[in-house]
Amino acid sequence: MGSLAKRIAAQRVYFDGDRTKPLAFRLAMLERLETQIREQENAILAALRLDLSKSRAEAYMTELALVYGELREARQNLRIWARTERVRGSLASFPAKNYVYREPYGVVLILAPWNYPFYLSIAPLIAAIAAGNCAVVKCSAESVHTSALIRKLLQAVFPASYVYAAAPDTDHAELLCQRYDYIFFTGSPRVGKIIMRAASEHLTPVTLELGGKSPCIVDESADIKLAARRIAWGKFLNAGQTCIAVDYVLVQRRVKAALVQALGAEISRRYPKAERQESYPKIINRRHYARLAGLIAAEKEVIGGAMNERAAKIAPTLFPEAAFDHPCMQEEIFGPLLPIIVYDELETAIQEIKAREKPLACYVFTRDKRKAEALISRLSFGGGCVNDVLLQIGNHRLPFGGVGNSGMGAYHGRYGFETFSHKKAVVKNTGFPDFPFRYAPFGEGKLKLLKKFL
Ligand code: NAD
Questions:
Q1: CA-CA distances (angstroms) from residue 334 to 179, 188, 408?
Q2: Could you tell me if residue 347 is inside a domain?
Q3: Mean pLDDT over each residue of the chain, to the nearest integer
Q4: 274 and 193 in a common domain
Q5: Whose CA is nearest to atom 40 of ligand 1?
Q6: Catalytic sites, residue numbers
Q7: pLDDT score at 409
C-alpha cells in the first residue's frame, strides 16, 4: 500500500469510529482551525505576497476575510443546519413520520488551484468539517509558499487521520486512483474532466468548481463611469487571475468610445506603472506570462500592455477592437487583458453568449431593469451581478458554483454544508394501522382500492 493509500485507510478507520459526527467535535475543530489561522495571519499574507505579489490589503479582502466569513457562518449555524428535518408524510407513507437526516460522506478529497490558494483550499475544508467528514486536502504546486504554509498549518491543527494535507506535488495518478466518498475540485474545465472520469470508477460524487469566459454586457443606458470603475476593479484584482473576473466586455456601439475612455482613465488613475508597483499582483509562472504576452502580441489595437519580465508583471491592458475570432477569445484569459467587443443589438450579444459554453459569471451594466431581467432569464451562467462585478462571491447566503462547462454543484455557507452531506430519507413507522391492501396477492379488487387512495 502506498503512503497516500495508508493515510486514506487511517482516515476510514477514524471516520468509522464515528468520532467526526458529534456536533461538539465539529465545532471544536472549526474553532481550532480559526485560532490557528488568526495566529498565522501575517505568515499567510506573507506567503501570498511571495506567490502572487498580492498586497496585504488585497490578500485580506479576497482570501482571509472570505475564510473568516465562512468560519463565522458555519460556527454560528451548524446546529441549525445539522438538525434532522421532519417533512410532511404522504398517503403512501401514512401514518409514519418522515425525516431527512444529514450525514457526512466519509473521506473527501479537496483539490485547490493556485489563484486564491488559501481561500480555495480552506473554504471547502470548513464545509467538509462542518458536515462531519474526514478530508484529504491537495493544494496547487504552483502557489509554492502558500501551499507549503497551508500544509504546515493543517498538520499543526489536525491529526492526519482526520485531515491530511497531501504534498502539493503528489503524483496525480496516485491521487486519483484512490477511493474517496466525495471529490470537491476547483480548477480548469480540462482537469475537471479528468477528475470526473476518475471519480466514475468508484461512482464517487463530485463538485466541480471550474472556469471559463465570463462576459460583461454594457448597455447604452448604463452609468459608464461606474461601469468602468467596477469592471477595472474586478478585472485587475489579482492581475485578472480570478475565475469570476470579467473575461471580456460586450458594449453597445453608441457607448463604446465613452467606456474605453473611462476604462483608460481608471487604469491611469488607479494602476499607474502597474508593472513596476509592488502592490500589483504578478503572473503566477513563466508559462502563463508567456501565454499572456502572446495574446498581447497577437492583438493589433492595444491600450496599455506594459510588461516587466523580471517581476512577471503585466500592466492592465485593453483590446478596444477585439472580436470573437481573435486569439484572446479562444480561451479563458486569466490575466489583466480585457477584450472589448462592440454590438449593435442586444439580441446579437445574447446569441453570441448562448452560442458559447455556459460561463461561470455574467455581468450586466444597465439602468433598464427589464433588460437586466431578460438577460438573467435568457442566459444560463453560474452567478453574476447587475451593475457590479464579483459580489456574488462575497455573500455566503448565495450559492457559488458553475453550470455546464463552468462546473456542477455549489458551496458557501449552508450550501457548502449541504454539498458535503448526504441527505438520508428515513420513514419511521409503527405496527398499527397495518393496511391489508398493500400486501399480496394483488387482484383487480385491490387495484380499484389502490386507485382510490394513491
Ligand atoms: P488546474 O485545473 O490546472 O489545477 C487545479 C488543481 O488540480 C491543482 O491542485 C492541480 O495540482 C490539480 N491537478 C492538475 N492536473 C491534475 C490531474 N491530471 N489530476 C489530478 N489533479 C490535477 O487549475 P489552475 O491552473 O490551478 O487554476 C486555474 C483554473 O481554475 C481556471 O480555469 C479558473 O477559472 C479555475 N478556477 C475556478 C474557480 C471556481 O471557484 N470556480 C476558482 C479559481 C479558479
A1: 32, 11, 20
A2: yes
A3: 97
A4: no
A5: 209
A6: 209, 243
A7: 98
